Amino acid sequence: MIGFLKGKLVLKAPPFLVLEVNGVGYEIEAPMTTFYSLPAVGDEILLYTHLAIREDAHILYGFSTERDRLLFRTLVKVNGVGAKLALTILSGLSVEQFQQCIQDNDVPSLVRLPGIGKKTAERLIIEMRDRLSAIGSVNISPASDTDVHQPSSNPKQEATSALIALGYKPQDASRMIQAVSGDTLSCEEIIRYALQGAVR
C-alpha cells in the first residue's frame, strides 16, 4: 500500500493532478478540498494516498490531510457509496461540515450533493454516526501551508469540466459556475464558491 507521496506538482486539472516522484509521474484523483490547498505547479507537496485496485484499473486517490483520507476510507465502506461518490462528498463538504451534517441529521444538505438521494443520505447518517469519533481524533496535517494558484487560460471552463467529472449534470455545472462572479479567480476558487453556493 502507498501511504503517501512527496514530490513535485506537475499538473492541476481537477479532479486530477500529476505528481512527479523520482522521475515517475503519478496521476492522482483528488477531492476539491485537496485542490484548495495545493501550491503552484512546480512546487513540492506531500499527499496522503489511497490505492484502489480494480479488475480494469489501479486508481490512486490523494488527500491533503490524514483526516480527509480517513473519511474517504470510511465512506467507501458504507453500502452504496463508492469512491466517486466519496470524492464528491469530500469536494462539497469539509470533514467538519460533514461531521456536523451527520450529528444534526441534516439530510437536506447531503441531498444537495450530486448522486446522493434521500435514502443514501439517511444511510450515511445512520452508518457514519458511530464512526465519526475515530475521524475526529486524527490530527490535521496539511499538504502545504501555501495557497498559491496557477492561473489557467479559461478557469470557468476548467471549473465546469471539474464539476461534471464530480457528477454534476452539464447544465447544472454551467449554471453553478456562471453564478460565481469575479474575473480574476482561479479554477479552484471558482469551484469552491460554486460548491459553497450549492450546499447553502
Write the H/E string, N to C.
Answer: EEEHEEHHHHHHHHH
- Spatial strand order of the main sheet: 1-2-3-5-4
Query: Biggest β-sheet, characterized?
Result: 5 strands, mixed, barrel
| Number of strand elements | 5
What topology emerges from the helices and strands here?
Layout: E1 4-13, E2 16-21, E3 24-29, H1 32-35, E4 44-53, E5 58-63, H2 66-75, H3 83-92, H4 95-103, H5 107-111, H6 118-128, H7 132-136, H8 155-165, H9 170-178, H10 187-199
Parallel strand pairs: 3-5
Antiparallel strand pairs: 1-2, 1-4, 2-3, 4-5
Helix pairs in contact: 2-3, 8-9, 8-10
In short:
It contains ten helices and five strands. With 200 residues, the chain is an alpha+beta fold.
Explain this structure.
With 200 residues, this protein is α+β, with helices and mostly antiparallel strands. The chain folds into three domains: 4-63, Nucleic acid-binding proteins (OB fold (Dihydrolipoamide Acetyltransferase, E2P), Beta Barrel); 66-136, 5' to 3' exonuclease, C-terminal subdomain (DNA polymerase, domain 1); 155-199, Orthogonal Bundle (Helicase, Ruva Protein, domain 3), CATH 1.10.8. It contains ten helices and five strands. Strands 1-2-3-5-4 form a five-stranded mixed barrel. Helix 8 (155-165) packs across helix 9 (170-178). The chain is globular, with a radius of gyration of 16 Å. Residues 137-152 have low confidence and may be disordered.
Descriptive tags:
DNA polymerase, domain 1; 5-stranded mixed barrel; OB fold (Dihydrolipoamide Acetyltransferase, E2P); 3 domains; alpha+beta; Helicase, Ruva Protein, domain 3; 200 residues; globular
